[in-house]
Specification:
By secondary structure, this protein is mainly alpha-helical. It has one domain: Growth Hormone, Chain: A. Helices cover 82% and strands 0% of the residues.
Length: 408
């Protein structure tokens, strides 16, 4: 066991990996603080769950059209420079919202929030494929699963601390979390600037329609990756609940912003526990069945959350939901990394970014729209049932994924 634990942590001997995950942690911290602040602000101004759904839609809109550019950009240009530029854009957006909230003009200009979310979604569309591809050029291939697990552990740590920080700062004034987010993005930019190890030279393939669509073609021809990506898309699209947390906090639990911060952190607590377990034990067996089981547990936990009438059981179900989701995420991401050649990795990861972003952001819109029509509890329960059904259907549709025993 001791040797296994040391092997799981060996990836931290790479200086650039340490800088990379520090940057991603601060980036994630800023995103989570902003998410809590924006959700609380929009619902406080509108008292409309559909308005919360529009936040997710605004983040989704740039993802699809930009996907044809973000993957090729990650394969053709300096991935470190892309990360620096995206962190800088996020810092500028946070600074702009800080100025508007502090000046008191945001109440009459709620549309500006949606524009800001659109800009955030655009930056994330470029940063995610470039960032993931950059990480894979920093560490040796045998350390990919460990590197991904530790990376996701730190992302989950930011997802835990970010909402808590945002929830604790909100009582100090709505401007406070936006200031904190701006500082986090500035720190992420600094860590990215300190990355000094050059990447392996990738070359610059000519820009053609075939080159732009190479990621989609590769995924379509690889049933294991296609099944993993599409299952995530459907399950989270139908089962997502986080957009409705401000409604549960203010209308169901009758609690304050601290509860929103804790509830937003709860899935990340479960995700962190799962990713640390996988990172330290170098999990590599029965990966296909583990992924399907995790999606089914995700659906069950979603139903449990929807039926909760108090904040404490709601937190428990969200922790379980987050742990199950992390098992699914780590299997999917590792399969993508080991199955994809480096020369198309940026383009494949760009498609993966769209799928992950689509499932989360369109899922938020789906949840907000259904809640506006049917109520928040029926919207959540229906989503959980649909996620379980998707796992059962995908097991039959993708037997290669179901029977996959190891990553290699």
């Amino acid at each position: 066991m001791g040797d296994t634990l040391r092997a799981g942590r060996a990836v931290f001997r790479h200086r650039d990996y340490r800088l990379y995950v520090a940057s991603r942690f601060m980036w994630g911290l800023g995103v989570q603080i902003m998410t809590v602040a924006i959700g609380w602000l929009v619902y406080s101004l509108t008292s409309d769950p559909f308005a919360l759904g529009l936040v997710g839609l605004a983040a989704f809109i740039p993802a699809v059209p930009l996907s044809i550019l973000t993957g090729p950009a990650a394969d053709r240009y300096d991935r470190r420079a892309i990360m620096i530029a995206c962190c800088s854009v996020m810092a500028a957006v946070a600074a702009g919202l800080t100025a508007m909230v502090g000046g008191g003009s945001i109440a009459s200009n709620v549309w500006v929030v949606y524009v800001a979310v659109f800009a955030i979604g655009s930056a994330r569309s470029f940063a995610n494929p470039a960032g993931h591809a950059l990480m894979m050029s920093i560490v040796p291939e045998p350390e990919y699963p460990s590197a991904l697990a530790w990376h996701n552990s730190l992302v989950q740590a930011s997802a835990i601390s970010g909402p808590i920080v945002g929830g604790l700062l909100l009582p100090l004034g709505e401007i406070a979390p936006f200031l904190a987010a701006c500082a986090a993005f500035a720190a992420a930019t600094t860590f990215s600037l300190l990355l000094r190890r050059p990447e392996r030279r990738l070359g610059k393939p000519p820009v053609t329609l075939q080159m732009l669509l190479a990621g989609y073609r590769f995924i379509w021809k690889c049933p294991v990756i296609l099944g993993a990506m599409s299952l995530d898309l459907i399950a989270v699209l139908l089962g997502g609940v986080v957009a409705l947390l401000p409604v549960f906090v203010q209308d169901v639990y009758d609690a304050g912003p601290w509860a929103l911060g804790v509830l937003r952190s709860a899935p990340a607590i479960g995700g962190l526990a799962a990713s640390l377990l996988i990172a330290n034990l170098t999990f590599r067996w029965h990966v296909g069945r583990t992924m399907f089981a995790a999606v089914a547990v995700f659906g069950l936990a979603t139903i449990g959350f929807g039926l909760s009438t108090h904040v404490l059981p709601a937190i428990l179900f969200l922790v379980i939901l987050g742990a199950a989701d992390m098992f699914s995420v780590l299997v999917r991401q590792t399969l993508i990394q080991v199955e994809t050649p480096n020369e198309v990795r940026g383009r494949v990861l760009a498609v993966h970014t769209i799928v992950a972003g689509t499932s989360n952001e369109l899922g938020e819109f789906r949840a907000g729209a259904m809640a506006a029509v049917f109520g928040v509890v029926p919207a959540v329960i229906a989503g959980g049932v649909a996620a379980i059904g998707a796992a059962a259907l995908w097991m039959r549709m993708f037997p290669d994924l179901r029977n996959r025993a190891t990553f290699r």
